[in-house]
Amino acid sequence: MPIVVDIDVMLAKRKMSVGELADRVGITPANLAVLKNGRAKAVRFTTLAALCEVLDCQPGDLLRWEA
């Protein structure tokens, strides 16, 4: 899939664990792992907004297109 999810990059920048992010966003660590590892087929705007709020970033910091 040409859409790359950079959650791990933002987690490293914010020095935050996957578990902490999952707790603060309100999704399961398993679902966050699916999104983080690029296996998700879709993401809800509400989830993306929550990720951006917790990580203090823009959607473009988390998602990018790569040919």
From TrEMBL:
CDD domains: HTH_XRE (cd00093). It comes from the Bacteria. Residues 13-62 form the HTH cro/C1-type domain. GO terms for molecular function: DNA binding. This is Putative transcriptional regulator. It comes from Actinospica robiniae DSM 44927.
